[in-house]
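Incident log entry.

Two folding requests arrived from the same account within the same minute. Monitoring flagged them as a possible duplicate submission, but the sequences differ. Recording both here for audit purposes.

Request one:
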Amino acid sequence: MKKSIALIFAALLVSATAALAAPPDGYGLLWSDEFDGTALDTSLWTNDVGTGVMGWGNQELEYYTDGANLQFADGALAMIAKQEAMGGQSYTSARFTSQGKKFFTYGYIECKMKAAKGAGLWNAVWMLGEDFQNANVPGTMTPWPQCGEVELYEQRTGPQQYSGTAGDDYFISTCHYAANGTGGPSYHSQGFPYSDCLCKDYHLYAVQWDETSFKYFFDGQQFWEYPITASYLTCFHQDMFMLFNMAVGGNYQGNDIDPTTFPATMYVDYIRVYQKGLGVAKNVKNQAARSSFVLVNPATAQLKVYDVSGRQIADFTSKVRTMKAGQNVMKMLPASLSTGAYVVRLVDNGRTMSEKLVATR
């Protein structure tokens, strides 16, 4: 979609050595992927495959493969865009997400990566609301932009359509949402012009997300804050999941693609998600748990429980389907769980609700 970007006119001199930045005080590691294996960890990620709907909603020109455009070496993941025919497209690339496997509300999210270089690429590390409608994830039903979208890093490589300068040293961070909560697409973006090509070294891209705002960081230095306290921004106070993708062309990038760009590679060293608290790594006590999950249609309802790392630890669907409409499923959960912090996900009558729960003895 077309974006008008607020540039940072004061040049920020940030050294790549600042990539040793640590998470904020009081934050503990919730989950991470260091990408030091030999294949994508399918307990964390799912490859998106194909061309999506209308080029993944963006008129993209690539076909996303089921892992063929991913390589693992030297403790890092390489995402590779190639000029090759597949699925009716002239390019192939990679896109994978944590939807249905790893999701969270609030935290400090940090990605260490090295950007790709060349004209015609559209790279991104971003988040969507966990309830974003996806036929492969049962119960999800919220369309874009109502689900909310947050970019840690988004880059259009090659000539920059907004500033008229090279785009290899420039990226943006963005918050997308529905105007007034139910209207058309709206967003706020902040551009970051770096002093050199982002493809030359690894850098840290991070966002600190809490009840009041998103604070954005590049190599440990904050460059933007977007407040999320407006009543219509409820999409930014619900579970979100991670996505990585490397598109070719598209309605943000444009289709001025240099054939010498390919193969093009974006390297990811790690993704780490931190949250407040130790032990369970989540300060659930400071997040209001839903006092009531009142059943509407028990016959088709689903109830699953995840630990704070996003791993499913219980499925109470069969038990819920013996209950009656109007009953509160939250009242029976603590008695069924050991002491600890959990994420409870209920699908009922077309609604999907995910909330935090602390069980004590």
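Request two (distinct sequence, not a duplicate):
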Amino acid sequence: MTLKWTDFEIPLLEALEKLNGSGKTSDIYPVVEEIMKLNRDAHPKEY
């Protein structure tokens, strides 16, 4: 599974919306992962 930056565009915007428009990267990434249903154990090379 290869992800491109465009695959993250909408989930990133959705995550920012959930976080009231801003946040630290460390707060945003977990929300994006949840929205995209990413599993770090299943795809370790993507991380």
